[in-house]
Design brief:
- With about 170 residues, the chain is mainly alpha-helical.
- It has a single domain, classed as Four Helix Bundle (Hemerythrin (Met), subunit A), CATH 1.20.120.450.
- It has six helices and two strands, in the order αααααββα.
- The protein has helices at about 1-25, 30, 40-65, 70-80, 90-110, 135-160, and strands spanning about 120, 130-135.
- The protein has a two-stranded antiparallel sheet.
- Helix 3 (about 40-65) runs antiparallel to helix 6 (about 135-160) and helix 4 (about 70-80) runs antiparallel to helix 5.
- The longest helix has 25 residues, at about 135-160.
- The chain is globular and about 45 Å long.
Length: about 170
């Protein structure tokens, strides 16, 4: 299971790196224009991806307190401050923070022991029902969440006729 999540974490980083590169090449106006998605703009979608990574790290913190290496990776994640405004400087901050978060998630996965994937994580969602879920379930949800929102970004870029084929599997992660 660890190897699968390592591949997911590495692929997540590779896809985010490509997306950041594509969006860096766009104007601030293109990144910030309301595109009709729930998070409105391209940068808004990527800010949300970053925010979710930080949110999930907060859920994992208590459950993995027994693992010093995992706790160290989580501390890096929970120490990242998401951007607060839609400015060029905040865009750079978001891109750098997402890269840092992706590296920390790879470190987190590498630090996990086989039993850690089944450790119960207290849920702060859905009114506490269920009260806990296995870490592996939340890791899967994080992968799906990020893929979903990168898909939204891809669809918007397709509409703008901006090449964005980042969906292939990077051979270096296998």
């Amino acid at each position: 299971m660890k190897e699968i999540f390592r591949i997911f974490a590495e692929q997540n980083k590779a896809a985010n790196t490509v997306i950041i590169h594509i969006l860096d090449a766009q104007s601030q106006e293109t990144r910030e224009q309301d595109r009709g998605s729930y998070y409105k703009s391209l940068s808004g979608l990527l800010h949300h991806v970053l925010g979710a990574e930080l949110f999930f790290a907060g859920l994992f913190k208590e459950a993995l307190v027994h693992n010093p290496q995992a706790s160290k990776a989580i501390a890096i994640l929970t120490g990242i401050t998401p951007p607060t405004e839609a400015t060029p400087d905040q865009w750079k901050h978001c891109a750098a923070s997402l890269a840092q978060a992706d590296d920390a998630f790879i470190s987190l996965i590498n630090a996990l022991c086989p039993d850690d994937f089944q450790v119960p994580v207290k849920m702060k969602l859905f009114g506490g029902n269920p009260d806990t879920v296995p870490l592996s379930f939340l890791l899967q949800n994080l992968v799906l969440h990020n893929t979903h929102h990168r898909g939204q970004i891809s669809q918007i870029l397709d509409e703008l006729k901006i090449d964005n084929n980042y969906s292939g599997i990077s051979p270096e992660v296998l």
